[in-house]
Amino acid sequence: MRSITQKLVDLLNVQQLDDYLFQGQNTRLFGSHLMGGQLVGQALIAASKTTDRPAHSLHAYFIRSGRTDLPILFQVENLRDGKSFATRQVHALQDGQIIFSAMVSFAYLEEGLNYQVEQPHYPSPDELESEQQLKQMIFDDAPESMHSIFMRQFHVKIHPVQPFNPFKPIPSETNYAEYFQTFETIPDELNSSMMHQAIAAYYSDYNLLTASLRPHGVSYATGDVRSASLDHTIYFHHEFKVDEWLLYDMNATISSQSRGLNFGRMWQDGKLVCSVIQESLMRDLRSLP
């Protein structure tokens, strides 16, 4: 039986059909709709397989809702292979329609000027309950129809710093943080910068949009708000390993026009390794006729 981590790398490791054409498989995490992070991670793998350099940035748009019952084709276009940077464009298609589009830039590692903001201080992950333990504590608050989806184990181990109950949301600060790592070490045959980056990108979408929901005391689980990721940007600053603990610190700066702007920073061993920006839909269904 495959481990949770093996299932994750198999999910993200898209199959190469031609030089610039790839096919991705699906998994049902939250019903019939694809998780946006899956598209980000798979697109990053597809683009990475066309170059020998690690990615340093990805800018993406979610164009249509993806479905878990249809295969995904990833078309990669080689826009440039320069001395310093390589650029790829990736379109994800289902049923002949583009559902997701991303630009990915790659660069060789090099030395230069270095500066970073200070890492925030939180309890260590060993001092915190796991996401699954916290879910069990609030299980009775979940509607019976949501029990199986709510308790489904995510592909990444998560220890929240500030636990919250999505079925009883209260207004709170936008700051939110989690520690994460894979359940097992990455298999040797896929232990590359490409896979570590793709798993971080996959996870980066998991709870980020909740940051802009927090001050309003609404949640995706209550039916009061329609929420979805609209775009996603991730910058890779340093190499890191997702099979060791990382801290993901998130916040939001504004919500307006039924959209929220969310920011995330990933840290490992005191080093800022990734930065994430995402605008999300947050339509208040209570105000609709």
- Mean pLDDT score: 93
Summing up helix and strand content along with how strands pair, one would put the structural category as alpha+beta
- What is the N-to-C succession of helices and strands? HEEHEEEEHHEEHHEEEEE
Distance between the termini: 50 Å
Number of helix segments?
6
Domain Acyl-CoA thioesterase 2 C-terminal: 150-279
Domain Acyl-CoA thioesterase-like N-terminal HotDog: 31-107
Protein name: Acyl-CoA thioesterase II
Keywords: Hydrolase
Structure overview:
By secondary structure, this protein is an alpha+beta fold. The protein has one domain (about 5-110, about 125-285): Beta Barrel (Porin). About 15% of the residues lie in helices and about 35% in strands. It has six helices and 13 strands. Strands 1, 2, 3, 4, 5, 6, 7, 8, 9, 10, 11, 12 and 13 form a 13-stranded antiparallel sheet that branches. A hairpin with a 2-residue loop joins strand 1 (about 15-20) and strand 2. Helix 2 (about 35-50) runs antiparallel to helix 5 (about 195-205). The radius of gyration is 19 Å and the shape is globular. Belongs to the C/M/P thioester hydrolase family. It comes from Acinetobacter silvestris. This is Acyl-CoA thioesterase II.
Spell out the key features of this protein:
alpha+beta, Porin, 289 residues, globular
Reconstruct the topology from this structure.
Layout: H1 4-12, E1 15-18, E2 21-24, H2 36-48, E3 55-62, E4 72-81, E5 85-94, E6 97-107, H3 131-137, H4 147-151, E7 157-160, E8 176-181, H5 193-204, H6 210-213, E9 225-229, E10 231-236, E11 246-256, E12 259-268, E13 271-284
Antiparallel strand pairs: 1-2, 2-4, 3-6, 3-10, 4-5, 5-6, 7-8, 8-11, 9-13, 10-13, 11-12, 12-13
